[in-house]
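B., you asked whether I could sanity-check this one before it goes into the benchmark set. Here's the sequence:
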Amino acid sequence: MTDLPYHKGERLKLVQLLQQKGISNPEVLSAIKNVPRHLFFGNGITSHAYEDKAFPIAAGQTISQPYTVAFQTQLLDVRKGMKVLEVGTGSGYQAAVLIELGVSLYTIERIKELQNQAKHKLKDLGYRPKYSGYGDGYKGLPIYAPFDRIIVTAGAPFIPPALIEQLKPQGKMVIPVGDKEQKMKLIEKDVEGNITESEHGTFYFVPLLNNKS
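And here's what the prediction gave me:
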């Protein structure tokens, strides 16, 4: 499957919709416009790839709604060259968006099947994370810490302490917290290591799996 002019037109329509919904960061919108979301889908539902909806992927997981991806990315406030940890590679779509923004991305996935698929998909499309591997999101990636930014793409019942520890001073983490529904939290660490927390709306994610899942 290739990226056709039709797909590029559909992405442009999606970007216009996201702007109407309040996504204003031009770099985030440009990344959404450039990443071929349909190539992260399984066969059969690619015609719906540029609808602003979440869709099922392998292993009972989902590819997030484009608005959710854009919202989290905008809230994360990344700049080119930042060292970013993504917890929950999933389909690889969010990873591709972050790489489009020029970050040094480290991404982990708890489900081995998804991790393998996403790693190969990103490579095939020319997206090169600094690290893409199997890992427990509650533990983060201490061997490569600390990180300028951390993004969690599954619903966590609480904020894992290890992720706060792995955040640099003046770093930011975006994480959905809750069970059946989640509050999008922005965690900020100041130069002295003090933590502040703010809420940014209600979202719905698959759960962040623990090491017993």
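One thing to flag: The chain is about 30% helix and 25% strand. Otherwise nothing jumped out at me.
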